[in-house]
Structures are given as structure tokens and as C-alpha cells.
Amino acid sequence: MKRKLICLLLCVLMLVPSALAVDLYVDGKKLETDTEPTIVSGRTLVPVRAIFESLGAEVFWDAATWTVTATKGDTTITMSIGNTTAYVNGAKKNLDVPAQLINSRTMVPARFVSEALDANVRWEGETETVYIATKPEYDGYTIVPDIIYSTSAEENGLGDTFMFADGVITKTQTVNGYPTHILKTEKGQVGIINLLNDPAFYTLSNGDTVRVCFLYMGYSEVLNMAAGAYAETGNLNIPITYPGVSAPSTTPTTPTTPTTPTTPTITPEPEPQQKTVYITPTGKRYHYLKSCGGKNAYAVTIDAAKARGLTPCKKCAS
Predict the structure, then answer these.
(1) Which end of the chain is less crowded, N or C, counting CB atoms within 10 A of the terminal residue's CB?
(2) For residue 241, what is the enclosing H or E element?
(3) Nearest residue to 151 via CA among 218, 223, 227, 230
(4) Dihedral, CA atoms, 21, 27, 28, 34, nearest 10 degrees?
């Protein structure tokens, strides 16, 4: 939902109308179509030319047989309007929902065509969003491409793309009234701007090694570097997903320095708003015990958790 809020905020700032309907993202960038993606019998259908071309395929339409053929490299996909049998390189494939005409547009199942072209597909029911990845991705965010460090959004065409980058927070400053972290990565720097005044942004400090997810906005003349709107802090312990396989992240983590045991000091328990709790990047609840939150849990203050709309875990935070 946070991604939609960021997009909506930017639309308001630019006075561009927006509606929170079924959304489709390819490699972190929202796919704009003249007919909105539609859910039919539990399957998301999308305009045929838009989805295939966004995945790098050529599309051919045979009006006589109402058949669409798409090719990419050595892969050829064929499907016909109303037919639940499709073909991938001549092999029959059964479709739960066939290609069909909606508002005079040919619509095809997003998951089938994407996976046939070796892309990963993920459905987020809470926000009714489809995420398709042909490049390394994390939780629907695409890995930062090198090109953003040397070109503007107008040149590279990647404006309004949701990305993630691993790096170190080196500086915090204010840009046009908004708190901003400078994230130094292996390839360059990115200014991460807190447009939504997200409390999680303030848990990051200079020197932290982090994975930051953001909406790429282009080149900042003030910062003299690429800039993006802060979306969330990712988990460095979760591997980056590649289409078809999973590979471990190569980003180094901060080593733990052994400490000398000391005599424990009994101190009064802090007030509830000062407690540390544990949350996950996509969870809806906060936990008092990290083990209850799972391997993806990370620490924040209880105020920050509540500010994000999270509720107590019934098992450990009651």
C-alpha cells in the first residue's frame, strides 16, 4: 500500500489524476495501458501488446483467426481468443482463463505470458498489484541499474520506477524541507528523500549498512546526484531474487564485535512508547520477541510500528 501512497502523493504534487485500481509493474515500473488490467475468475488479464512489448517480445495479430503470436529470442507463444489451449514453442499449455476481448482490447493472462518468457510473477492481494520481474528484484523492487548514476530520468526513461539499493548511509540533510539520507553504493550515491514523513526513515543513522527501497525520481540539482522517494527499509538477510533462480546477496554486512560479559544491571522497564519491537517488511503486526517475528524481523520503536498502522501480535505482544 505504501507504494501506491507514494505514487498518489507524486500525482497530487504534479496535479496528475490517479486511481488506486489493479496495478501492473514490470521491473519496478508501472505499466501504463489504455485498458486497465482486469481480474477474471481469479486471473489477471492485461492488454496483449503492452505486456509482451514490456517483456521485450514482438507481437503479431492474425485478424482472420483471432490469434496472437509473440516471439522473444527462441521462444514463440501462440494463443487465440476464447481458447484455453495456448502453445509455447509448439507445446500445448492449458490456460485457466483464455485470451479474450475486453473493451475492444485483446487481454491475456499476465502470469502465463510472463512465466513463458522466463519472468517471475508475484501477486500482492492487499494492494491488488501484479509485480513482474525480468531483472534481479527484492519484494517487487528492481535492483538499481548503473545508468541512473550518470543520466537523468528524462534520458534513461526510468522515472517513477521502484528500485532498491544496498549501501551505507553517509550523511543526513534537508532538501526542500524534506529529510534526506545520502546512500553510498558500490556504483555511486543516491539521495533518499522522506516525502511521506515515514517514521521508519528516522531509524536509519549515518554508518548503517542497509537495503533501501525507493521510487526513483531522477537527477537532483540540489544534491547533484540521483534521487528517490523513500518507500521502506529492506532486509539484507533476504537474498535477491533472479528470474528463475535465487542467489544470495553479495552485499557485505557489518561484522559483530564480541563483547566482554558484564554483570547485568536491573533497570526499570521503559514506558510502552519507548519499547523496541520487531516488524517485517510486509507484516501487519509488531512483536515483542524477534523469534516470533521470524527471520525477516528487524527492530524499531513501538511508536514507529504504530505510526505505520501495525497492531500487536496476539501471541507475544498482548
Answers:
(1) C
(2) strand 240-242
(3) 218
(4) -30
Q: What residues contact 37, with CB distance under 8 A and at least 6 apart?
A: 21, 22, 23, 24, 44, 45, 46, 110, 130
Q: Return the closest-CA partner of residue 298 out of 264, 253, 259.
A: 253
CA atoms within 13 A on the CB side of 175: 19
State which amino acid sits at residue 267. Answer: T
Helix, strand, coil distribution of the chain in percent, nearest 5: 15, 40, 40
Predicted pLDDT of residue 273 = 43
CA 203/CA 51 separation, integer angstroms: 38
Mean pLDDT of the chain: 83
Q: Which residues pair with 98 in a beta bridge?
A: none
- Tell me the residue type at 72: K
Which cell is 122 given?
A: 508475484
Candidates 269, 278, 281; CA nearest to 313 is: 278
Torsion of CA 83, 85, 87, 88, to 10 degrees: 120
Mapping DSSP onto H, E and C, the string for 17-72 reads CCCCCCEEEECCEECCCCCCCEEECCEEEEEHHHHHHHCCCEEEEECCCCEEEEEE
Residues 6+ apart with CB under 8 A from 269: none
End-to-end CA distance of the chain: 26
Is 161 within 8 Å of 215 (Cβ atoms)?
yes
| pTM for the full predicted model | 0.68
Instruction: Give the torsion through C-alpha atoms of 263, 267, 273, 278, to 10 deg.
Output: 20
Closest CA to 297 of 316, 275, 282, 312: 282
152, 260 in Cβ contact below 8 A? no
pLDDT at site 194: 95
pLDDT at 210: 96
Helix/strand/coil for 307: helix
Helices (H), the chain: 2-13, 48-54, 110-116, 153-156, 290-293, 302-307
Say how many residues make up the chain: 318
pLDDT on residue 16: 43
